[in-house]
Automatic annotation (TrEMBL):
It comes from Campylobacter concisus. This is Uncharacterized protein. The keyword Repeat applies. The lineage of its organism: Bacteria, Pseudomonadati, Campylobacterota, Epsilonproteobacteria, Campylobacterales. InterPro entries: RCC1/BLIP-II, Reg_chr_condens, Ub_ligase/GEF_domain. It comes from the Bacteria. Keywords: Repeat.
Length: 544
């Protein structure tokens, strides 16, 4: 293979003092820069400094046109895999594993295996390995979901495959035998919408929207969330009759809030909202606490156009179980409504009827008419975040001792408070934030935010940090937003923050637009993919 031309002329070995021409040490392989020789050779990969310059400084001078037109960040520290295009869906969490998809449609895996899991390898696999998947080379992966002990792969051609735990008809294949290889579930699928792994994570259910607009369910149906008029478990994908929709309307989105005590919500293209299932705290928004096994319109919002919805999960404590289901619906006119029950949120939200988020729930002086809330969500079991158009961020709800609200509080907060910065920053703009949507214990939540200060953007985090999940180089919880040591030149490049794991044993992954992935946190099963099981990892390090 012909060698690539590189603008830096010579490099120096960090150990032996040998010098050589860079162009004789690197070559191009399918657009990726690689080194000649093993790790003991004089290579970019093995040298910390080259003639006094770091690897990153040297690579800045690489002529990208000679290596397939790839950018600098696309050829840095890739190892044997190319850029990553897809992390798992943010709403769901696996049990001690990580999976990603590369731009070349490779499916990569690291972490733990057991008799109920995907069995990609024997025991822990602390290094990323390439896992064959059914339509590799035939159709691209559209959606990757790692949900407790099972995995779903949705392809762009609409085929849906699954594998792993199947004890409660999890995979919808007509039996309850665990599947240690990929099995096809159905086809013509547009979107997969499983129930989040709540307190009963092993009990599971899934809904899908097909390309023709039809809705199908399988798995647990103990409280009738599938809308079939009964509470019978569904062993295979079963079609929902959409006769309750208005003429000319169709399904836009489907949300299932839990894996067993499930409430289901359908948002239509016209913005109508329908609900069904478990309703012990009024989370269906129907002004009562009666379960439903058929979909019913949330008439309190019939004059609104609902565009998005988030819902909290179930919560377990050492003494008893709590099912504080809370729902947030956002409408096209930037109004937001909350209903359900949570003992530690704004009293007005403890209501089986959708309640409008009013200015009186915020600090004095804030007016939505001047600075509308453009995004409001509930994460975990009841932590609320509201982002305004100007970039102000407010929070309330569950905080516990770890302070995931970022408002300098270690107890629950009953009115919205503006976030507080550990470095005393007062003038800021939050550009984006990510919460932990699947935390089933209030003390294990986190928030990550991109914050602009004086025209420079930084990464901040707050919340539980027992295994270094915040990337702050320590394991102390942060109850106010704290700056994460992360390369500022990469902040605008952040595409997604995904938090893998169950309860406190988790690790976040940051995906950049150029395909690099950084991680930190819990690693006892090798879920960081760093070729070891040392834990904790307290600072973000590149894993892919």
């Amino acid at each position: 293979m012909a060698e690539s031309k590189i603008t830096v002329a010579r490099v120096k070995d960090k150990v032996g003092g040998r010098e050589a021409e860079v162009s004789k040490l690197l070559y191009s392989d399918n657009g990726n820069i690689k080194t000649i020789g093993g790790d003991s050779a004089i290579t970019v990969g093995s040298a910390k400094t080259l003639n006094g310059e770091t690897k990153e400084q040297l690579l800045k001078n690489v002529n990208a046109s000679t290596i397939g037109g790839k950018s600098l960040s696309q050829i840095q520290s890739r190892g044997k895999f190319g850029p990553i295009k897809l992390l798992p869906d943010n709403l769901y969490a696996s049990f001690y594993i990580n999976m990603v998809v590369t731009e070349n449609e490779e499916l990569l895996f690291c972490g733990a295996n057991n008799s109920d899991h995907n069995t990609f390898s024997a025991g822990n696999m602390p290094s990323w390995i390439n896992i064959p998947h059914p339509l590799q080379g035939k159709s691209k992966v559209k959606q990757l979901i790692t949900n407790y002990l099972h995995t779903f792969l949705l392809y762009e051609n609409g085929d849906l495959y699954g594998r792993g735990y199947n004890g409660y008809n999890t995979l919808g294949i007509g039996n309850t035998a665990n599947q240690y290889d990929w099995v096809k579930i159905t086809d013509n699928v547009k979107k997969v919408c499983p129930g989040k792994p709540g307190y009963y994570g092993g009990r599971s259910n899934t809904g899908i929207i097909k390309n023709d607009g039809s809705v199908w369910f399988w798995g647990e149906n103990a409280y009738g969330h599938a809308g079939m008029g009964n509470t019978t478990a569904l062993t295979v994908p079963t079609k929902l009759a959409l006769t309750f929709l208005d003429a000319g309307d169709s399904v836009k989105d489907l949300i299932l809030n839990d894996s067993y005590y499930t409430s289901a919500y359908i948002i239509t293209e016209k913005g109508k909202l329908y609900s069904c299932g478990w309703n012990d705290n009024g989370q269906l928004g129907l002004n009562d606490k009666t379960n439903r096994n058929t979909f019913t319109q949330v008439t309190a919002l019939q004059d609104k156009k609902v565009v998005s919805l988030t819902a909290s999960m179930s919560y377990n404590s050492s003494s008893s179980q709590y099912f504080y289901k809370v729902v947030v619906a956002s409408c096209s006119d930037n109004t937001h409504y909350v209903w359900g029950n949570s003992n530690s949120t704004i009293p007005a939200f403890r209501n089986p009827l959708p309640t409008k988020v009013e200015d009186s729930m915020f600090p004095s002086g804030y007016k939505q008419v001047n600075d509308p809330i453009v995004r409001m969500e509930v994460c975990g079991i009841g932590s609320f975040y509201a982002l305004t158009r100007s970039g102000r961020l407010f929070a309330c709800g569950y905080s516990s001792a770890t302070g995931q609200l970022g408002v300098n509080a270690t107890t629950d907060v009953v009115t919205f408070k503006e976030v507080v910065f550990a470095d005393s920053t007062t003038s800021y703009k939050v550009k984006q934030f990510w919460g932990t949507y699947h935390s089933v214990q209030p003390q294990y939540g986190q928030i990550y935010a991109i914050v602009e200060i004086d025209n420079v953007r930084y990464l901040y985090a707050a919340g539980y940090n027992g295994y270094g999940q915040l990337g702050l180089n320590h394991t102390n919880a942060a109850n106010s937003l704290t700056r994460v040591p992360f390369n500022t030149s990469d902040i605008d490049n952040i595409k997604q923050v995904y938090v893998q794991g169950y309860e406190n044993l988790n690790n976040p992954m940051i995906l950049l637009n150029d395909g690099r992935v950084y991680t930190c946190g819990y690693n006892a099963n090798g879920t960081c993919g760093l070729n070891h099981v040392i834990t904790p990892i307290t600072r973000f390090v590149q894993t892919l």
